[in-house]
Amino acid sequence: MTKKEEVFEKGDFVVYPAHGVGKIDDIVTQKIAELEVHLYIISFEKDRLKLKLPLNKAKASGLRKLSSADRLKDAMVTLQGRSRAKRTMWSRRAQEYETKINSGDPVSIAEVLRDLHRNEDQAEQSYSERQIYQAALERLARELAVIEEIDEKKAAEKLETVLSEVVAA
Q: How far apart (Å, rounded) are the C-alpha atoms in residues 105 and 20?
């Protein structure tokens, strides 16, 4: 095991980039093709998904602990910034947004929310814009909810309040 490799324990909340916040239900050893493999069993309750991830692949997969308070604060500051949506084709922007969401980085996800947020007085979003916005909101709200020990709905409301205050200012 390398020096910087994180070790997780049963009951820890973790972030898996492609799925968001999950909880380590167990750490088991399974025999696969004559090899003993140590696995994290991670459940993603919202998606009704269980993931078996080899311990030695955890770092390469991007599995990480929940964000620090400072990293979450950086994400909130990002939400308060001005939209930096590029004037490129939507398909390219959508791909960039999906990549940011799947990075699992709260600041990158906050950038997506900031760029796609619309207030009532602004033009309507397309269906795909709403889908990506919703995915980013849910992903960031889940992490915020676990960190601040509030429910996911309150976390989403808090994020949208921050976004609305920026446009109103």
A: 10
Tokens 């999906």, residue? Answer: 98
* Tokens representing residue 19 in the block: 């799925």
Task: State how beta strands 13-16 and 64-65 pair.
Answer: antiparallel
- Which amino acid, 11? G
Ranges of beta strands (E only) in the chain are 13-16, 20-32, 35-44, 49-54, 64-65
Q: The whole model's pTM is what?
A: 0.85
Strands (E), 18-126: 20-32, 35-44, 49-54, 64-65
DSSP letter at 81? S
Domain 13-65, CATH among 2.60.260.20, 3.20.20.140, 4.10.800.10, 2.40.10.170: 2.40.10.170
Q: What is the pLDDT of residues 3-31, one digit of tens each?
A: 456 789 999 999 999 889 999 999 999 99
Nearest to 23 by CA among 63, 62, 71, 57: 63
Pairwise pLDDT comparison (111 vs 1), residue with the higher score: 111
